[in-house]
Every structure is written in structure tokens, then in C-alpha cells.
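assembly run, all chains below
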Amino acid sequence: MENFSPFVLPFVLGAFALLGICIYKYVRWVRQFDRAQKKTLYKNIFSVKFIPALWEMFTECLLHLRITKKNWRLGYMHRSIAFGWFLLILVGAIESRLGTKEHFHFWVAIFYRYFHHTPPVNGTEVFFTNLMDLLLLYVLSGVCLALVKKIRSSLLGMQRATKHSLMDKAIRYSLWGIFPLRLLSESVTACIYGNGGFLTQSIGNLFSIPAAQFLELPFWSLYSIDLCVFFVLLPFTRYMHIFTEIFLIYFRRLGVQEHTRMTGFTKFELSSCSRCGMCIDHCPLYKDLDIPEVQSVYLLRNLRNLEYHKDIVTAAKNCLMCNRCVEDCPVNIDLMNIRRIARDKGKIDMPDSYSYLKNVNSFNAIGRVAYFGGCMSHLTPGITQAMETIFQAAGQDYWYMDEQGTICCGRPLLQQGFNSQASELRRKNTELIRQSGATALITSCPICYKSFKDEYQLSIPVYHHTEYLKMLIDSGKLKVKKGDLKVTYHDPCELGRGQHIYEQPRQVLSAVATLLNISDEKENSLCCGMNLGNTVLSLEQQTVIRDNTLACLSEPNPDIIATACPMCKKAFVHGTGANVKDIAEIVANQIEK
Amino acid sequence: MADFGFIIKKTRSIQLSEASLTKFKQAVEAVPSYKNCIGCGGCTATCSARQYTDFNIRKVHFSIRRGLYDNAATELQKCMLCGKCTLVCPRGVNLRSLIINIRQIISNSNEPFEDGKF
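ok done. output:
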């Protein structure tokens, strides 16, 4: 057989094994989509959404732009290995196709130098030979960086690298082996036949010809075997993300979303995690409390790998749900929903838990806005009083929905995995709001706001009070005067990262006071530590997180620490002698009479 | 009988030496701050569910301390988990965690993911 040598067999078998296992897994996962996900998939499968998906696949799976934006050194490392290897395969395929007259097999593209001995003569051949060497050098530079990261991750801007399982370590070494082995194999062949480029020929010339002849077959065989090991391990390790992310991007663009149960789509998300560990460094539980192996990367690993299944619940429970890792994840995996899925309470999530609410009646609020303070605002009466002052000053008729008793919005239950109990509360609140005939819903609590926005299907607009204050000030309904107070603003997790409301509170504050900048704000804002997402942390641990956040907020010496969440306010007032106020309270003090 | 606006409960006694405190001990193990409780009742006073029904969280966890588990699960089901009780507690008892854990202990059910079967 022309263009064949037994050493290609491991590579060929490995490649077919990889293809077979991947197809088996992907088909299985798509079949495990739930009904709604399948419907979305089939409805949109031939839509034009394919085009932006293709672009995202290129920029994310190959160029890794999102990682580069966060940390250019890591971005370079990932890009050089992913995009470099992709080009190596692509250019290698073109080169070998052009150079092989007959008996072309797909492995010839990989082992081209071994089968094609004639030194490059014309311009095209010289170009391709040297381009291939350049690309190999590019990939090798990435591998070197990966080595540096392994030894000292801080040099690449990461404080803590992920702890990997045995299989993950094994495949990492096989990946690192591939490119040096390819370099050595091509170099010894270049030494014998003179068919190398600027890199392989120079290294090849260091060998003596008998040594090269002796080493040629072993090197090429090792290269082939290493490829085989990498291919066979790939579907069972973190490197499955290489192919899975392509599908994840496609499905996501088609509109497939995570639901409350583990589905095939969840499995695509789990396998898209490359365990890069970028979610670890900023996690308050790691940063402030040094709690190991609960961060998203470990939760996803525990869900995916059989040997870690016993640790799923421990990791799932211990999280503030502050969304910081969602901001940091370069693959945009729906980490919060996956965590909620893992927190599923199963049998104790009882339907009809709140039958006692059936006698709660609505109020005729036609033409008014509904104001929902939220449970927590009952502990911070300053906020609700300020809002009432503001409504009156703006001449707005309002209905204070939960003045007497609060029916929770359901989000705290949802975050703990009580899906059916949460939906019962949502049904009740929806009914009350619908029957009232109110024209808009304004809430003071970012937790409720996120819930009303995302989890309810209300037909009226929903505003957080910071948005509403901004609208009142802009429309001139509320006249405020600028005071000489200096304030710093704390972005509540659910309002900032949860709903991306960063500008409105800042504009409102700038209208009534002087806003100072702090080091960690907007997307990078720190959690107050009291987030309802967590039930595991002790008060002492929460206090540590709170104090670190307070230190950041107090740094520019403000007169007032402002926030927009009753929970954060409640957390801060106990931790500092400084003045902590909600935006509504500051605005209410600055109303022009 | 005439309605005097109050009722007199029948006298009852609990044999603490016979009561099984296993589940209470499990709850303390799961939520160590449980043992800090001084029974001030701040949790009940602030409770959102309490405003609509006669749910009394203080009563429930005192019953559990004495080994009375009968109505605890159905009572705790009324909780909306809003977390006000945890915030007002002067002793730092993590009541939300306690409520979830007691419900799990009493119903003897693991979370689905705890068994690794999903």
C-alpha cells in the first residue's frame, strides 16, 4: 500500500474512536433535551441565526476573544494552541493535498513529511514548508506558556489554578507531548531527506544521519501513539470542551435555554467547561474565606464525573449566587441555573404549601402604580418611607402592595431548589397584580426585581426603584437639588450582574450628590455577604466577606455609603460606623420643596 | 361554651427521658448554630408567613428540641424562605438552613443529587 506505514494505525484508530464516541454522546444528549428545548431547536434549526453562531464559534472556539479581554496572556495561550493547531491541520491538509498526486489518505495530511521526502523546490512548496514550521512554533509557544502556568500560575495572572483529576492530568501531558514529538519527528526526517523548513531543518541538522535513521520510526510512532492517547481520552476529560463548545454556541444562538431539571442541554454545558478556573480567583468564598472546591468549575466537574458525584450537594449548597463567576466565565455557561438544578430539593418540594394565602385579596389599583417593598424592606423601614415620600412628592398615585403582609416573590425558594413551591408563590403574586389593574410595578428589592423581570410573565412594566427615580428626575416630575455629600455606591449582585443596571443608580446619585469611584465596581462589584443564595456560611464567615466589601466602599472616605438593596443595607449598617443609606433615602432628603 | 377570647389548653407532659432526640441531634449537626438559640421569638415576630397563618417557627423548633416531630414537616412547609428570621436573629442562628435541613431530616429524604442518581 502506498503512503502507508503501520505506525499510522494508532492515530487512525484513535481518530475513529473519537469520532464514534462524540457522535454517540451528542446524539444521546440532543435526545435528552426536554420538550420545550426540542421545540425551540426544531423551530429554529434552519434559521439565519446560524450566521452569528458561526462567527461566535470562530471568535470563541478558535480566537478565544472573551478570555483575551479578561487576561491577554491566558488568551494568547489558548489561542496559540487552539487556533494554531487548527491552522496546522488546515494548512497541512492543503499542502499535502497539493503535493500528493495519488494514494491520498487522510493520515497523509498529518504525517506528510514522513511520506513526502522531496525537498521543497518551487516557491509554493517553500512557502508551505516554512509556514507549517511557523505554525508549529506558534503552537509550541502556547505549550511553553501552559508549562509556565503549571509551574507558576501567577505569572499568567491567575492566583489559583484548578485542581484536576487524574485523567485530566494524563490528557494534559499527552497534549503537551504532541507538538514537541511532531517537531522531533519532522526534524529527524528533515535530517535524512532535507525536506524541512526553517525550524525543523535547523534542528534536524543537529542530528547525525545514522542517528536520525535510527530514531525516525520510533519518533513518528510515538507521535502517532500520543495522538491516539489524546483522542481516546478526550471524550472522558475536560478537553471534550473543544468540540462541545461549538454545539453549545449553536444551540444557545437558536434560543435553547436551561430549565429546572437536568437535561441533555445541561450535559452540553457541563462538557463545554474547560476547567480553566477563571471562576475561582474572584469568588468571595475563595478570595475572602479560602473555601476550596465549591466554585463553579468544581460543581460542574462533580456533576460530570462519576467519581465526584458524592460531592455534588456539598459544592452546590455553598455559594452566594452573587453571579461573579458568571461574569468571569469565558464560555458564558449558565452557571446559576446549573447550580439551581443541582440544588433540586426533590421530595420535600411540596405543591400546595401555601393554601393559607388563598384568602388574600387584591386591591383596586386601576390607574396607580403598584409598589412592592419586598420582605427585606420590612426590616429597613427607612427605604419604604422614603419611597412613599417620593411618590407623594412626584404626585404619583400608588398602591403599597405589601404594606401589611408580604407574600415573598419566590426567588429565595427558587435559589434553594424548591421549584414547585416557588411557582406557587409566583402564581399568587401574579394573580394579585393582575387583578389590581396597576399600570406598573416598582420594587425596592433587587431580588424581587430580578424575579419579577425574569421569572414572572407580567403584562405591566417592572422597575427597580433606581430606574423609577431616574425616570421621575428625567421627566421633571421629581425636582431634586444637588447636595454637597460625597457618596460611594455599592452595586447589589442581583441588580448589577443580575440585571445589568449600573448606570441608572449612578445617574440618580450624581443628580443629588457627588459620586466617588471605587476599585471594584459594576461587573466587578463585591458581594455584601448576606446574599440569600447561601445557607451554609456562618454569620462569622459572612461578616468577613462583608467587611472586605465595606473596606473597598469606605476607601475614598465617603460621607455616605449608598446601596440599592435592603439586604445589602441591612448587612452594611451593622458593620460600619459610617452612614449607610439606600438611594431612595438620599433622594428623598434632597427633594426640592 | 362562651367565647372569652382565649382558650385554656389541656395540661400535657413530655417524657424527656423517653423522647427520641435523634432527629434533633441530626439537625444540630447539620446547623451547629441551632444550639445558640435562646428562644427570644424574634424569628416568629418578623415572619412573613406568620402574618397570614398561625405558623410559629419558634414553636416548631422548640417542639423538635423536645423530640416532638409530628407536625413539624407540614408546619415548616408554610415557610417562604424569605430569610427575615435569619437576619433578625440576635444569636446568629441560620434559620433558613435549619428549616431546610429539618424538613429533609424529618421526611428522611436526600436531595436527588445526593444519591448520585439523576
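The mean pLDDT of chain B is 87.

The helical segments of chain B are 22-30, 42-46, 57-65, 72-76, 84-88, 95-107.

not gonna interpret more than that til we talk
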